[in-house]
Amino acid sequence: MTVTERVRPGVDAGRLMEHITALAAIGATPDGGVTRLAFSPEDVEGRAYVARLMAEAGLAVRVDPAGNLIGTRPGIDPGAATLVLGSHIDTVVNGGAYDGAYGVLAAIEVARTLAERGVRLACGLAVVAFCDEEGGHGTMGMLGAHGFAGALPPGIAKVLDERGVPVGDLLAAVGGDAERLPEAAWAPGDIAAYLELHVEQGDVLERRGVPIGVVESIAGRVNVSVTVEGVAGHAGTTSMDHRSDALVAAARVVLAVRAIAAEEGVVLRATTGTCSVGPGMWNVIPGRVRLGVEFRDVSADRLDAALARLAGAAGEIAAADGVTVTVEPGARTTPVACDPRLRDLVAGAARERGLDCHHLPSGAGHDAQIVARVAPIGMIFVPSEGGISHAPGEHTAPHHLVWGADVLLSAVLRFDEAPVARG
Ligand code: GLV
Ligand code: MN
Ligand code: MN
């Protein structure tokens, strides 16, 4: 039987859409978004729902010590490495219904479709809902994927989230086990390949009118904490020329961050996403401000150049405003390339479905870029309407969602017929 005969028709479109709608209802916000922060009660409920779907798809379900929810099915060849499909189901605050959730639910639908057609793969199959991709409550982000790749920083279990809860306790809430984290790691030879289906979260595919994206590379990111220390004082009595206002200086830092990408072009993207002001009262001149900054680029050198430029700007602002500005780089992901053979595999799967594809880089981060440390990775994108993501307006047309899942199904079968050798 040819690959094409094995996969027509594709996945069950109605069932996939039903599952996407049901998961989106867990943590739904009044303005149409979803808040399902990692480790929250909503995340726990969402994971239980996804675990049930995995079991219904005939997968053996477990949670690894790093909190990853994993459904597996052995292949015909007991010695064969596993083909891993996955993404995440946690969201940002008031995010969308598709970021991550789509990739997990489509992968489960692919596994279920194969089981229903009686297709047994030669290789083992695993579907993974990675734990805490988004960095819920100020955690490092892609926590589960780091555990999966054996790349968690030492002492991570004792690191506190922004509420003061240790990561070890967070993991326990979702069935993980900080004492056994090394057991979550897969060895390089264990994984034949990793494929992740995701909404694009940008507008390239929509503008080109192309339904399938073949991801070439994934941008890296560096998070930076910037602390500005001035002098708190009375807002009514302190004259305007005797102030060391930490928030005014922080505002200059925010503009400098923007300029590093927008005007100076040192790096592709630069964002200040958080700001906490102390003591935080109307009638007190701010004495201390903490900013959360991140830079993104497909080049690690440009990330370093942005850090150096920010340090320079911080020095200039400190001198001009009479404050101290401390710049501390934090979590970092390196830019990675998708495996060229898996890119070809995805393009071939799209062709087989009669769908055009376009090759593009990913500006967003993905679990795939961490899994890349232990496996060849490939990613499939589908269009995001208006390029909107990490916001309630995130939307992808149902036919695009279904086509993406069909391409994933074809890619799995093509892979099984001609595995991409690691090397
Ligand atoms: C992941 O969601 C990212 O922020 O890129
Ligand atoms: Mn996201
Ligand atoms: Mn995502």
UniProtKB/TrEMBL annotation:
Cofactor(s) this protein cannot do without: Zn(2+); Mn(2+)
Keywords attached to this entry: Hydrolase, Manganese, Metal-binding, Zinc
Co-factor: note: Binds 2 Zn(2+) ions per subunit.
Residues holding Zn(2+) 1: 88, 99, 198
UniProt-listed InterPro entries: Amidase_Cbmase (IPR010158), Bact_exopeptidase_dim_dom (IPR036264), Peptidase_M20 (IPR002933), Peptidase_M20_dimer (IPR011650)
Molecular-function annotations in GO: hydrolase activity, acting on carbon-nitrogen (but not peptide) bonds, in linear amidines; metal ion binding
SUPFAM superfamilies: Bacterial exopeptidase dimerisation domain, Zn-dependent exopeptidases
Domain (Peptidase M20 dimerisation): residue spans on this chain: 220-319
Superkingdom of the organism of origin: Bacteria
Chain segments annotated as transmembrane: none
Residues noted as binding Zn(2+) 2 in the record, renumbered to the chain: 99, 134, 390
Protein family per UniProt: Belongs to the peptidase M20 family.
Quaternary structure note: Homodimer.
Protein name: Zn-dependent hydrolase
Organism encoding this protein: Nonomuraea zeae
